[in-house]
Amino acid sequence: MSEKSPVNWAQLEAKPEFRALLARKSRFIIGSTIFFVIYYFALPVLVGYFPEMMKKEVLGRLNWAYLFALSQFFMAWAMAFIYTRKAAQWDKEAAAVVHGH
Amino acid sequence: MTIAVWMFLAFVVATLGITVWAAKKNTGASAYFAAGRSITGWQNGLAVAGDYMSAASFLGISGMIAFFGYDGFMYSVGWLVAYLTVLIVVAEPLRNAGKYTMADLLAYRLTPRPVRAMASLSTITVSTLYMVAQMIGAGTLVKLLLKDLPWISTEWAIIGVGVLMVVYVVFGGMLATTWVQIIKAILLMTGTIFLSILVMKHFGYSFTKFFDAIAHLTYTDKSGVEVTKNFLEPGMKFGADVTNGWGPLDLISLGLALVFGTAGLPHILVRFYTVPDAKTARVSVVWAMVIIGTFYILTTFLGFGAATILKPHNIVTDNMAAPQLAEFLGGPIFFAFISAVAFATILAVVAGLTISASASFAHDFYSNVLHHGKENRPGMEVRVARITAFVVGAISIFLAIKLQNVNVAFLVGLAFAVAASANLPVIVLSIFWKKFSTTGAVLGLAVGLVSSIVLIILSPSIMGIDGPEIVAAKRHLIQANAIFPLTNPGILSIPLGFFAAIIGSLMKREPEAEAKFAELKVRAHTGLGSEKATAH
Predict the structure, then answer these.
(1) CA gap B432, B410 in Å, rounded
(2) What is the CA angle B400-B402-B404, rounded to 5?
């Protein structure tokens, strides 16, 4: 995989703009991963260990358990939307870092 | 009933036509393994969705909800949220740093031969487990759906599916496989949306009436007693009272395998090499999430619809809930359409699995392990992949026929567990951890693979004591009490996989790999030097 290339990777990696971009990116990736993992696993934990609470009906016949499960879909879509917008910004910044190399 | 056969034949003819078209465009390895990196975002999104929505989701989840209510719906949730891991953590770096397989990313800065050998082993294991489960599913399905045509036996159904998938992959490569997935995803969504509308029509398009019926469902249970239950309440499958207290933990373990396993499934990962760049890879995951999410929300109507309209005691087996509902609400033609969609689903998924397994064998094992990355003759890699697809097809047909009477639901669970415990830790560490080394990768892959397989063997999926009244298909393979209490090993095997990969890396440091981390970082995060599209 490691064919000789004229790009000076180490020099690019050492650029402060690249380091800063990567730091911001990592913060977002780690933060959002922790968020969705907690949000998702709250569902089996609450449903499994606090079933009586989750069986309470809130919206007509819909109970907390179903509504929380349904909310997971919208959480996932919202996260995907936010990530896509962030990533478009990172693309621009990455292009600026690479530019001139 | 023969309408189903005609519809299925129409699908086969259409997909074979695509295969002929794709075969003409297959010039060179990039065209064969990665469709020339020419697939657009929405096309790949549909194909990812097609690869993912197997018969297990379409038929399995509908049946699970029909029998276990809310707890069945819990499966739907995990299968979508899993895509956040794919989107946020894996897709773009993988596309930027790799070429044809998952192992490309690992071999980027580690010693290629041992890493590729192990990664190839785990890729082929996951694909084969998944494939055999799908093909046995196809066999049983044919038996149930074509009961009027007894000359089509389970064996012939399995052989038919196997031969078709080999034809798609051997002649059409990734391009044909991708288009088979796209067509199947469109058919599946159309069928699901239409069936959901029919369910709502049955309830006079009133959500209040629909959910009232679910919350107040009267049916005859297994012991012949008439009971009334609220199917919206959790606990019918995983409740502490019905599972000796292990249910809630098992559900968490299943969630772990889904959320971290999807991003390690080889047939999903190879899809990101079919697009021109990382941005398109990202767009395709978002498309896939919209399609997959909509589909899984609609399982509410399919599953609860079957439960309320048909009643659980009238459903033949859990796989038949959706087709039976289609027959009841839409008549024989719609039943035929849904059955044909189910076949198309299985065919497309096995084709995707075959190409990921054969690409890994040809590219990782043959070219890079046996021939040190130096292809001895141009075109050899593609030829080896075609031969592998043939061999993989033959082995899967053989295994599926041999295991056709065994309860195989655990095979898919095992595939996810291996993907989550062996593949995901090494992918994540290789992208994010400087000190990750060859020893760590090999150890992580090996421990993840072995621990998930051993724990499944010791689990209630394989071990258990059955009474004489239990039929062959439902009997446990080992007649003894289970040693590991959970059906899903993820909660233990995923941490073990990570742990082994970290310990291995700390045990034997690798200065060259650490030095190349800078290169990988720049490449993964900027796309500089990534594989470009070849076909236009």
Answers:
(1) 32
(2) 60
Cβ contact, residue pair A40, B77, below 8 Å: yes
CB contact under 8 A, B81 and A36: yes
Count CB-CB contacts under 10 A for residue B462.
19
Give the pairing type, strands B226-229 and B217-220.
antiparallel
In the structure, what pLDDT confidence band is assigned to residue B407 with cuts at 50, 70 and 90? low
Q: Is A9 on the interface with B (CB under 8 A)?
A: yes
- Chain segment B339-386, per-residue pLDDT in tens: 888 888 888 888 888 888 888 888 888 888 887 766 566 678 888 888
A3 residue type, one letter: E
**ipTM beyond cut 0.85:** yes
**Inter-chain touch B77–A43, beta carbons under 8 Å:** yes
Find the residue in B nearest to A97 (Cα).
B526
The SS3 assignment for B217 reads: strand
Q: Which of A32, A66, A85, A93 to mutate to test the interface with B (most CBs of B within 10 A)?
A: A66
Asked if B215's CB is within 8 angstroms of A80's CB, the reply is: no
Per-residue pLDDT reduced to its tens digit, B441-461: 999 999 999 999 999 889 888
- Per residue in A56-100, pLDDT tens? 999 888 999 999 999 999 999 999 999 999 999 998 888 888 876
Q: What tokens were used for B40?
A: 């657009």
Which residue among B85, B104, B293 places its CB closest to the CB of A73? Answer: B293
Tell me the per-residue pLDDT of B127-172, one tens digit each, with 9 for 90 and over: 888 888 888 877 777 777 676 666 777 788 888 888 888 888 888 8
| Whether A61 contacts chain B with CB within 8 A | yes
| Coil, strand or helix at B348 | helix
CA angle, B422 as apex, B420 and B424 as ends, to 5°?
Answer: 50
